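hey can u check if this looks right to u? its 469 residues, i copy pasted from the old doc so theres a chance i mangled smth
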Amino acid sequence: MNFLDDDYLLTTDLAQELFHAHAATMPVVDYHCHLHPEEIVEDPCFTDIVAAWLTDGNNYGDHYKWRLMRANGVPEALITGDGDPWEKFLAYATTMDKAIGSPVYLWTHMELRRYFGIEETLTEKSAKAIFDECNAKLATPEFSRRSLLRRMNVDTVCTTDDPVDDLHYHEEFAREGDTFAMLPAMRPDKALNPDKEGFVEWVERLEAVSGTTISSFDDFIAAMSRRIDFFHEHGSRLADHAADLMTYDEATPAELDAILAKARAGKELTALEVSQYRTAFMVQLMRLYSDKGWAMQIHLHAMRNVNTREFGIHGADTGYDAINDRSIAEPLYRLLDAAARGGDVPKMLIYSLNPNDYMAIATVMGAFQGDMKQRLSLGNAWWFNDTRTGIRRQLEVQAETSLLGNAVGMTTDSRSFLSFPRHEFFRRILCELIGDWAARGEVPNDVDYLAPLVENVSFNNAKELFLCD
């Protein structure tokens, strides 16, 4: 095969037909991303490819790329700093010369092809011509933020929104209309972390926007319930939680009131108190989401900001995170069991950044299925696992422990408007895997039989499970 030709990754005739005739034709539901809704509404063009690809000056760039550039010894001024755009692009191009085998290398060249029609390999020698061509195209209305989404056949994009947000950009977008939908997905991380800086001020904002005086933990949950109602009215059917570390510790109502009061007074909480608070909060959220028919996403085992010096300089989400390897099975089953006792297990998608967790998560989830199609799903290969190896393994575990045909596809989990070819990457790997199974006689070599499954995993399941009442 030639590099990134029409059949790349598709090593069997069956895989090729499943992808080209079925997976590739399906629209995209990106149910978890970090695009900014104001950018979608205002729809400006990017100033250049560096702003679109690497950084726009506000650390909205792609930390996947930043990590590779740091590994190549690129000065920080040419990564997140105020260096010259051309010099930044050249530094990235020279990094790509060494990045063969990285998914970022594939995504980079897929993005050049799918958005810009550029098939030349990005190298130090080709960088200037590619830089100039991308910049010329990005200056035109055909390459505005919304236009980039339309190019990728996006049906729905779900942004990540704080419970206290007023969602006025979503309201404006809904009034204007477009070929795709933009829906909010609630991300109550600030509510989940009473030990983090800013919690006191955030609770005060919650009181104001919910019209609730918060004097107890029950008041706090009532305020959150009102915000869930507000998000529901704006089309939200999803919530996401960066739980990172899964713990489970019960507490009495009086203990929860005392923990909340202590946190609001700015006093340091013990590890046990944080765990008790988070346990109760998650259980109550599961009840509220279940009542609304929402899907609950939980992202586990990210170990964030491990380089404290660089975190202090650049802030969160700038490339200084790693995989956690703590125990997960017992606290997860206890959380699900606490919700199940009240009949309150919502639709759930549980991710782990550590692929060693997949079997534990999948088997625990299997004990809580029932009453609806795929109540609980193993989250797609996430972050460091967005590789051919990682995606295949996640799909294999889903197939081996539950139902592959009910899997809910891919998300970009990205701040980049140029990241949507990752859906194609996932779909090619899905078709490759099925083709491999058929070549070994493990599944029927029958396109008509397999095509509905491929279409469902690529698009229909996500649309049905997460975005429909």
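The CA atoms of residues 181 and 370 lie 30 Å apart.
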